[in-house]
């Protein structure tokens, strides 16, 4: 059992919790874990679209013998004005846990404050902790641990980046971050990483950031909900694309949480190359979340 009751961001887990979840995920993936969540229900609230998060959580619940209910923006009253705190208490009366993908991170906090069942953040504008669990599982599989592994984050200091910064701190993983100055990781996240004992190296030059990296990680430049600032963001991120030129000097593996916008933050050639581990990362969403669900509910 882990100490965390809600997982709104990675630093809701202790370093011990993280290791426990990753170990449980690895055992489930290897077919070596007997835990089941029979007759347990996960309510899944989505304000934004999803391919991986929805399907991996739903599949995890099915494989564990439980059930997941998809509640999209047109399915429940949250989208037409029922307060988050009312949705929280109603859903908690039926479901054993709630997973939510919301715009405003404060809404995820309110959901957790009012629901007396575990609440898991399936992505907010500020954080994507379940993605980080899968990312760390993937790095651990590839390198047999985190020692002497260097990861470079290249691109936007967005929700995926911010949770990964916290995950790297918790896993004691060496991380370099390069973003356009105005799109960096929030100071609050860097402070929280420092409290966990490890802050990333922040550098200006993408070439310098990737030079010694074992893994280079990127995500879209225009996240869901940012469509109105698309043109100015595309201009700001010139030079941050993961392409053959940027990666020419090393043999680093490439990660992307997906969906990838080929031709923007990454080229099709890089996504489809032998160095790309994006499909392993995507599959690991299933195993990492199964591990988390077992630790929270079994
Ligand atoms: N990486 C990720 O969360 O993908 P989806 O938006 O498809 O869920
Ligand atoms: N940063 C992206 C991640 C998608 C999984 C977004 O928020 O749209």
What's the quick description here?
The chain is of the alpha/beta class and 298 residues long. Helix content is 41%, strand content 13%.
List the helices and strands and how they pair.
Layout: H1 15-29, E1 41-46, H2 52-63, E2 67-71, H3 84-94, E3 97-101, H4 105-114, E4 119-121, H5 129-143, E5 150-154, H6 159-171, E6 174-178, H7 187-196, E7 201-202, H8 206-211, E8 215-218, H9 230-236, E9 253-256, H10 268-271, H11 278-297
Parallel strand pairs: 1-2, 1-3, 3-4, 5-6, 5-8, 6-7, 8-9
The chain binds phosphoric acid mono(formamide)ester and norvaline.
What key phrases describe this protein's structure?
5-stranded parallel sheet, 2 domains, binds norvaline, alpha/beta, Rossmann fold, 4-stranded parallel sheet, 11 helices, 9 strands, binds phosphoric acid mono(formamide)ester, 298 residues, single chain
Describe, in plain words, how this protein is organized in 3D.
This is Ornithine carbamoyltransferase. It catalyses: carbamoyl phosphate + L-ornithine = L-citrulline + phosphate + H(+). Carbamoyl phosphate binds at residues 50-53, 101, 128-131, 257-258, 285. It comes from Haloplanus salinus. This protein is α/β, with parallel strands linked by helices. The protein has helices at residues 15-29, 52-63, 84-94, 105-114, 129-143, 159-171, 187-196, 206-211, 230-236, 268-271, 278-297; strands spanning 41-46, 67-71, 97-101, 119-121, 150-154, 174-178, 201-202, 215-218, 253-256. A five-stranded parallel beta sheet has the order 7-6-5-8-9. Phosphoric acid mono(formamide)ester binds next to helix 2.
